[in-house]
Amino acid sequence: MRMMLVGAGAVGESILKVMKWRDPKGEWLEYVLVCDFDQNRAQEVVEKLGKDCRFEAAEVNATDKEAMMRLALMHQIDFLMDAAPPFASNYIFDAAYETGINYGNMGTWSVPMDHPAYGLGIENSYTEPMTKYNFDRHEAWKEKGSMAVICMGIDPGVVNVFAKYAATELLDEITEVHVKDGGNLSVPGADPDDIMFGFNVWTVLDEVMNPNVEYDASRGGLLVEKPFAGREVWEMPDGVGQNTLVKVEHEEVVTMPRYLKQYGLQRATFKISLDENLITALKVVDKLGLRSIHPIQIGETEVIPRDVVAACAPQPKDIGDEMIGEMLVGVECIGKKDGKEKAYFLYQAFDNQESMKKWGSQAVVAQTGFGAALAIELIARGIWKDRGVFSPEYFDPLPYLNLMDESGYEYHIAEIK
Question: N or C terminus: fewer CB in 10 A for the chain?
Answer without folding.
Answer: C
